[in-house]
Design a protein that fits this description.
Largest sheet: 7 strands, antiparallel
CATH topology of the largest domain: TATA-Binding Protein
Helix content: 40-55%
Distance between the termini: 67 Å
Strand order of the largest sheet: 7-8-9-10-6-11-12
CATH class of the largest domain: Alpha Beta
CATH architecture of the largest domain: 2-Layer Sandwich
Number of helices: 14
Shape: globular
Structural class: alpha+beta
């Protein structure tokens, strides 16, 4: 067989599950028993943690780990010494480790880094502060991001929940918090905006590759400590351009100035870069959805997910509600987050919340009613004669309720992160095939 034929054969075996082939490492390494990889890498991670190696590995240390594991009968797979280099390369390929640029032949495993934060000197304020807020932190997401950024780790400044990354004169402190469910970036330096953009989009790319259904929010913290929703601001700028304004607390900001600073570019390049970031968002959890923008003369712009299409059913027949129910159940989880956003606003901005007390109360009331309607739809049994009629009646009420919430939401543009979340809920609502139902 020539080289091309070997490559094709290995790929076919890999697909069939007979063997695992890693073309990015080298052709000579083929694993006929995939379980061998799992057990070997698990042992490396477990034994390294047990022996407190603080994530520093090389071929010699791996050989010693396996030798000790065999002596203590902790290892139930055979790992020849000549395969240690292959396993390290494999961990690099899987983004479990990265090559340590400070030491030849050494690797660093982020999840095994020391717990103690080193004295790195990078401040948590005074720079550009960017946050990813997630409903939960997927296991290994932060460590995969660090491994992906391995060439940029500054002076081995890495610990269990943080890392210092550098590019030129710019340094970025990146940290994660399980408790707060966020990943934060604090960027400093003359070109910190450019570097922050690279890192932000790198994390977005990772989320898009492996966690497409994981909904997340992004926001920045201004120099005055005010929080601004990043996606909401980007949407406003894409519609209104230089005249777009965003609100944080009682302050008003020009979107173009904030975006220029956080992208680190001139105004002439801004629209292109904002569009590029929208494309990344869509490839993530909005791959099959679109931003729907309505320019309202009073509150411009806002995301408007209301319905104005005529709903018809040519055959005048009732169809299964399973697809509708699936979408609406996802809406319910987002409605919970929407309620949290409103509660946070009332707690953090009491003066402004008091000013708009009636609008906020009305919105809360309608959200509560919509959630109750969705729960009622879920509870309708399938095997009763009146089921279809009940489903139709409940869906009609849900649609009317949502149209009212969408209209009320236009008055709440000042609530941080609100229009962004309303837009996402609207995307789920619009995925319901209302045309199947005759109202």
């Amino acid at each position: 067989m020539d080289g091309n034929e070997i490559s094709i054969a290995l790929t076919v075996l890999d697909i069939l599950g007979v063997a695992i082939h890693f073309p990015n490492i080298r052709h000579s390494d083929v694993v006929l028993n995939p379980e061998w990889i799992t057990k070997a890498i698990y042992f490396i991670i477990w034994s390294s943690e047990k022996r407190k190696l603080e994530g520093k590995l090389n071929v010699t240390s791996l050989q010693l780990l396996f030798e000790e594991g065999r002596k203590n009968e902790e290892l139930d797979v055979k790992v020849p010494n000549e395969k240690c280099s292959f396993l390290l390369d494999l961990m690099d390929e899987f983004r479990l480790a990265f090559k340590n640029k400070s030491y030849q032949g050494a690797y660093c495993v982020p999840m095994l880094a020391p717990t103690m934060e080193p004295d790195h000197g990078v401040k948590r304020n005074g720079g550009l502060r960017f946050f990813f807020s997630l409903p939960f932190l997927p296991p290994g997401l932060f460590y995969r991001f660090v491994a992906e950024s391995g060439d940029e780790v500054a002076d081995d400044m890495i610990w269990k929940c943080g890392v210092i990354l550098s590019q030129g004169e710019s340094k970025v402190l990146v940290e994660y918090s399980d408790y707060q469910r966020n990943i934060t970036f604090n960027a400093h330096g003359p070109r910190s905006g450019v570097y922050l953009t690279t890192l932000r989009q790198r994390l977005m790319q990772l989320l898009g590759e492996s966690y497409q259904d994981l909904d997340y929010d992004t926001y920045i913290i201004t120099a005055d400590g005010e929080r601004i929703n990043w996606r909401d601001m980007s949407v406003r700028y894409s519609v209104e351009g230089d005249s777009a304004k965003v609100y944080a607390g009682l302050s008003e900001h020009r979107a173009v100035e904030i975006l220029k600073e956080f992208f680190g570019v001139l105004e002439s390049d801004l629209k292109r870069l904002v569009q590029n970031e929208f494309d990344l968002m869509r490839r993530h959890n909005m791959a099959d959805r679109q931003f729907k923008i309505e320019v309202n003369p009073t509150i411009s712009p806002t995301i408007s997910p209301s319905f104005d299409q005529k709903l018809e059913n040519e055959n005048n027949t009732i169809v299964s509600v399973s697809n509708e129910l699936q979408s609406l159940l996802r809406v319910d989880s987002d409605l919970i987050i929407l309620e949290e956003i409103l509660n946070d606003f009332k707690e953090d901005y009491k003066e402004k919340a008091f000013k708009y007390e009636n609008e906020l109360k009305q919105l809360h009331r309608e959200i509560k009613r919509l959630r109750s309607d969705i729960a009622e739809l879920e509870a309708i049994p399938e095997n009763i004669p009146t089921a279809d009629a009940k489903k139709k009646s409940t869906l009609e009420r849900i649609k009317g309720r949502w149209d009212k919430i969408a209209e009320l939401s236009k008055q709440c543009y000042y609530v941080i992160g609100f229009s962004d979340k309303i837009g996402k809920i609207g995307d789920w609502i619009s995925s319901v095939d209302w045309g199947k139902w005759q109202f």
